[in-house]
Amino acid sequence: MMKLKSYLLLGAVFMLTCNVNAQADFNLLNANTPDEIGQVPEARKLANKDKPLPYGYIDDRDILYSKVIWEHIDLNERINLPLYYPIDSTYVDSSRKSMFYTLLKGIKDGEISEVYDDSFFKSKLTMKDINQKLTRVDTSDYAYELLNEGQTNIKDYVDEISIKSEDIDGYRIKGIWFFDKRQGEMRYRMLAIAPMAPDVQILGRDDIDGNESLPLFWVFYPNAREVLHKGTAFNENNHRSPISFDQILNARRFTAVILREENLYGNRAITEYIRGNALLQILESERIKETIRNKELDMWNY
Question: Which residue ranges of the chain lie beneath pLDDT 50?
Answer without folding.
Answer: 1-24
